[in-house]
Design a protein that fits this description.
This protein has a seven-stranded mixed beta sheet with strand order 2-8-7-6-5-3-4, sandwiched between helices. A three-stranded antiparallel beta sheet has the order 9-10-12. Strands 1-11 form a two-stranded parallel ribbon. By secondary structure, it is of the alpha/beta class. It contains twelve helices and twelve strands. It has two domains: 126 residues, Aspartate Aminotransferase, domain 1 (Alpha-Beta Complex); 237 residues, Type I PLP-dependent aspartate aminotransferase-like (Major domain) (Aspartate Aminotransferase, domain 2, 3-Layer(aba) Sandwich), CATH 3.40.640. Helix 4 links the parallel strand 3 and strand 4. The radius of gyration is 21 Å and the shape is globular.
Amino acid sequence: MKKIIYLDNAATTRVYPKVAEEMQKFLSENFGNPSSIHAFGDRAADAIRIAREKIAKEIGAKPWEIVFTSGGTEANNLVINGLTLANPNKKKIIISSIEHPSMSELCKFLKNWGYKIVEISVDKEGIVDLKKLEKEIDDETLLVSIMHVNNEIGTVQDIKKIGDICRQKKVYFHTDAVQSFAKMKIDVKDMNIDMLSASGHKIGGPKGIGFLYIREGINIKPIMIGGGQERGFRSGTENVAGIAGFAKALDITKKIDKGKIIKLRYKLIFELEKIGGKINGSKINRIYNNVSVSFPGIEGDTAVIYLSERGIMCSTGSACKSKQLKESHVLAALGLNKKEIAGSLRLTLNEYVSEKDIDYAVAEINKVVKKLTI
């Protein structure tokens, strides 16, 4: 059987066996509805309460400030739609030029309703221009939303500085932390974060579960109406198994030896540069497991298929856009030309990747570059 080297962990991760075991308890044993008042309902409700407490503690929040959602996209939609419904008099939203489509596409839609959307540019390393950000915030601004770690290039924003600016200017600050939750230190109080989105399947948890942190006292309206679950912010019977699995994945992720992965990432960067690769984004302000690289002259999609046939799973960028054949707005924002964008690959590591895996992957990438270069 061909060995699989999985290097697409920014798209999704393998569910940890212990996470699957934890979820199974709530699928076949303690399967009650958490709103029911009998013993099975109590067990399900207890599981949600414990998970909520664990997740809140991880980011320095209060348990009741955590609202479970179906994932990062729904959390981001709740931020935008919920805030605009609750605050109709403010019509300006500020985002970065490299936000995830669940934020940027929604903001484009809001333009049809009279909203002014301002995209703050980034430098060639993918870092937001804070002076421009501060200058753009005015009395009409409802929200600033800047993602913590970019899903394509892995660059890390200084969200504490951004949070401080927003608090001083008295505007709401939201961060999409889907790629950073449980991987980097986050303290919502210290960083002046008002809202934060995260997702379970990026840290060895199941798909279909995420959360939105909403600071107590923020005026936000629900976008799903029903039985009033999740403090009325997100009605619908809770995904108990997913929530329990998310909390278990958090426990496991926190124990990962990130130092080992960082060493392998630097080795991968070094070896890719040796064969002509150009690293996209900052090499320093970067999440520990991400490498984005361009080989001008090749077609990234073709390279991904070639590598897949040889047991190497990677991507060209965001999994949410990879089948739509659209040019990466993230790489374009960095100033890359069309050939550099077309020839991009994203390789994201996990704790299962070895040095031999890196050597094999680089050798195969070298072959495909030589084969496909026009």
